[in-house]
Write a structure and sequence with these properties.
Length: 385
C-alpha cells in the first residue's frame, strides 16, 4: 500500500537487538484527550505505588477513547500516532498492519484544485542546520523550524542520515513537519532511500553475514563504510525505526515520478507504484538478512539515466509507473557530472546552484552534494523553464 492510504500502521520491532523503549507516560491531568496507552508483553501498565486501597465498591470507570479526528487524506502518521504493539515477535522489520488507527478517508477527485504548491528536497544526510536554512529560504518553515507553508506539499527523496552530524535530528524534524503540515491542510512526506535501508539493516542484523557480490559482508560494516554515525545509532529509537520501515519507494505527483535512486531496479519489484511499495514492505516484513541486503544493494545502483541510453531507461520507468519526468536524489550532481570521483570526493570547484536536468529533459537530479561542499536543494515543481 502507498503511504497515507487507509491501512493500519506497520511497526518495526527491534527487541532482538536492544531493549524496547519504555512506554510513554500517561498524560497529566488536564492534558488533551488522546488514545489511551495499550499494555504490551514487555510493558504492562503499572499502577502507582501507595497505601492499600479500600475494598472497591465497583470497578473504576474508564473514560471513553477520544473520537477520531478527521485528517486530510494525505496525512502521514508520525510517532505520536503509532500504537504500542506487543513486542513478542523479534524476527521482523515490520509487523503486519494491526487495527487501523486513522479514520478512512476518500479523496474527492475535485479536491486536487485545493492542493498547494509542490516542493521536493534532495538528500539531507544529517545536515540538519542546512536543511532548516533551505526550507526557510523557500518559506516552508518559520524561524523556529515549524511548518509555515499552509497547504503546500513537500516530498523528501530519502537519505536522511549518515555522513552528516545529526541524522536523527533530521528525521525528528521531518516527522514534526508531517504532523504540522497535515494540521495546516498540506502535507510533508518522504521516500525510502538506500541509507534508510542501510540503517534499518545495521540495527536489526548488525554483523550477521550476508552474501554480496564481493563475498561475505554485513550491514554493520557497510553502514560504517558509508558514513554511519555512532551518535545517530545511539539516539535511534523505536519510533524512528517504525517510521523509516513504512516509507514508500516510489510516488507520482503532478506528472513527476519521485524515486530516490537513479536506477531502473525498481522495475524488478513491481509493474505499478503500489506493487513496488508493497513488495518493499513485504521484504522488510520477512526480515531475511540476505533479502534485505539485496534490496539495499539494488537501491544503491546509480547512473542509469546518464549515458546515451539514459533517456530510454527513464522512459521505461515512466511507461511502467506514469508521469512525464523522473525526479531523483542519490547521485550527487558533481558525481553525476563526473566532476568528482565518488560520493566522498571534494567538489570545491563545482558550483551547484540548482537541480540538474538531463536525459533529454526527462530526468531531474536533486542531490546537490551537501556532503561534498555542495548545496542542499529544496525546489518547487514544476521547474521554471
Amino acid at each position: 500500500m502507498t503511504q497515507g492510504a487507509s491501512q493500519g500502521p506497520m511497526v518495526w520491532t527491534m527487541a532482538g537487538q536492544t531493549p524496547a523503549s519504555p512506554p510513554p507516560p500517561l498524560p497529566p491531568s488536564g492534558a488533551p484527550a488522546g488514545p489511551p496507552p495499550v499494555p504490551s508483553a514487555d510493558h504492562p501498565l503499572q499502577q502507582p505505588a501507595g497505601p492499600p486501597a479500600a475494598p472497591p465498591a465497583a470497578p473504576p470507570v474508564v473514560p471513553p477513547a477520544a473520537q477520531p479526528v478527521d485528517l486530510p487524506e494525505e496525512y502521514t502518521p508520525t510517532a505520536r500516532d503509532l500504537p504500542v504493539i506487543g513486542s513478542g515477535r523479534t524476527d521482523t522489520l515490520i509487523d503486519q498492519p494491526a487495527a487501523s488507527h486513522l479514520p478512512e478517508a476518500t479523496l474527492d477527485p475535485d479536491a486536487t484544485e485545493g492542493l498547494g504548491p509542490l516542493y521536493v528536497v534532495g538528500d539531507v544526510h544529517g545536515y540538519y542546520d542546512e536543511l532548516r536554512e533551505a526550507l526557510a529560504s523557500e518559506g516552508l518553515v518559520d524561524a523556529d523550524g515549524s511548518w509555515a507553508a499552509g497547504n503546500a506539499r513537500l516530498w523528501f527523496l530519502g537519505d536522511f542520515t549518515d555522513r552528516g552530524p545529526d541524522g536523527i535530528g533530521v528525521i525528528d524534524l521531518v516527522m514534526q513537519l508531517s504532523a504540522e503540515a497535515a494540521a495546516a491542510g498540506g502535507y510533508c512526506k518522504a521516500l525510502m532511500g538506500n541509507h534508510e535501508l542501510l540503517l534499518l539493516g545495521a540495527k536489526r542484523f548488525g554483523d550477521t553475514p550476508v552474501q554480496s557480490g564481493a563475498g561475505t559482508a554485513s550491514f554493520q560494516a557497510a553502514w560504517l563504510l558509508n558514513g554511519g554515525q555512532k551518535s545517530d545509532m545511539d539516539r535511534l529509537e523505536d519510533h524512528h525505526l517504525q517510521w523509516m520501515a513504512r516509507l514508500d519507494a516510489v510516488m507520482e505527483e503532478d506528472g513527476h515520478l519521485l524515486v530516490h535512486s537513479d536506477t531502473t531496479a525498481y522495475l524488478e519489484y513491481g509493474d505499478s507504484i503500489e506493487a513496488v511499495n508493497d513488495t518493499v514492505h513485504d521484504v522488510l516484513t520477512r526480515s531475511d538478512a540476505d533479502e534485505v541486503w539485496d534490496l539495499f544493494r539494488k537501491f544503491t545502483k546509480r547512473f542509469a539515466f546518464r549515458d546515451e541510453t539514459g533517456s530510454q531507461a527513464v522512459r521505461e520507468l515512466l511507461d511502467a509507473y506514469g508521469g512525464t519526468r523522473v525526479v531523483h536524489g542519490h547521485s550527487p550532481i558533481p558525481y553525476l557530472l563526473g566532476e568528482v570521483g565518488g560520493e566522498d570526493g571534494e567538489s570545491d570547484g563545482v558550483a551547484v546552484d540548482g537541480p540538474h536536468v538531463y536525459a533529454d529533459g526527462l530526468a531531474i537530479a536533486m542531490d546537490g552534494g551537501v556532503t561534498m561542499a555542495g548545496k542542499l536543494l529544496v525546489v518547487q515543481l514544476p521547474l521554471a523553464d
